[in-house]
Amino acid sequence: MGTGITGIVIANFPFPFRGMIVIGSIFFLTNVCLFILFSLLFAARLVMFPETIAPLLRSHQLLMFGAIPMGLTTLTNYTIMVLHPTHSWGIELAYVLWWIQFAFTMISIFGVPFCMMRYHSHNIENMTGLWLFPLVPAVVTGASGCYLARFLELEGHRAPMILGVAGITLCCGISLALPVIGIYFYRLIVHDFVPKDIIVSSFLPVGPLGQGTYGIIQMGWAFQRIIGDKYAPGFGDSAFACCIVIAYFLWGYGLYYMVFAFTSVFIRLREGIPYNLGWWGLTFPIGVFTAGTMNIAVATDSRFFRGLTALFVCILVINWFIAASNTLTRIYTGSIFKAPCLQEKHAKSTDSEMQVRNTDDHITHV
């Protein structure tokens, strides 16, 4: 997710420079390799160690399932952006990839919350932005579908079909995310910022709001091109104008939570923030917020938003290198290879054994 969105925003830098497409393509190829590698490793774990499936379903690690369709979305969008203009098969590949990510999105927004309701224990005090993770794929996939619809041929049925499915998915995702963000705000007011171990999750509310900004504008452009004046004179332009207004609302809301996220990180810095893989959760929210800012800049031809986009791109690239360097270091030492769901199971088993042992000792003593 983080690598893919970094490549996309670099390739679309608001102030073009020589080599930006090449740099973006390097990130894209790296992202393809990472996605294939991690997908194979995850599939191999499920096949070779099926006993790990049940602990995964009952663990909070399951919330990370949404990373699969969101990571695939970055591949789909870059395929449309770079491969489609030079290769005729690029748009067909993107079309297939989008339906695959749509299937994973449906599993994420329906299956993961079901497991959360049935098998997980929750309370407001321990609530974090991770609750958004199963829902954000709907926003991301919807936005990607609206972007894809703009490049499909108008003569057939695919463009309006993708626009309809993607638009509904996008609006569904935003509608699901907004009340969770409201609950998260209540949790911050009542229980202070989240602990230092998961402080990076403070950026997660920025994700659906930033991607929502990007997606809503993409939907407006798609309405202009695909629907146009089909139903009423000026329908497409009116829809685009409404989308711009909604985009401003979502962007301002996302900026509010980004300020609080940076504030919470600076406050926890005094306590010492340990590195973990959750740090990658910082790159994607900033990346999609940057993409949303970029779309506002293009749609309104605003140099102010172009400047903000350039600033956010620089921040994103710095964060990516920090996360990447720390990850590579811990891969070398082996300290990063952990499965939280299996550790929780092992801890529970150890506790049960200790309780049985203490009971036996007590009976023997009596």
UniProtKB/TrEMBL annotation:
A cellular component term from Gene Ontology for this protein is: plasma membrane
Q: What residue intervals traverse the membrane?
A: 20-42, 62-84, 96-117, 129-150, 162-186, 198-218, 238-267, 279-298, 304-322
Please give the Pfam families that the UniProt record associates with this protein: SLAC1
* Membrane-related topology note: Multi-pass membrane protein
Task: Tell me, in one coarse class, where this protein mainly resides.
Answer: membrane
Note the Gene3D superfamilies from the entry: Voltage-dependent anion channel (1.50.10.150)
In alphabetical order, the GO MF annotations are:
sulfite transmembrane transporter activity
Name its cellular compartments: Cell membrane
Keywords (A to Z) from UniProt: Cell membrane, Membrane, Transmembrane, Transmembrane helix, Transport
- Family note: Belongs to the tellurite-resistance/dicarboxylate transporter (TDT) family.
Know the name of this protein?
C4-dicarboxylate transporter/malic acid transport protein
User: From what organism does this protein derive?
Assistant: Basidiobolus meristosporus CBS 931.73
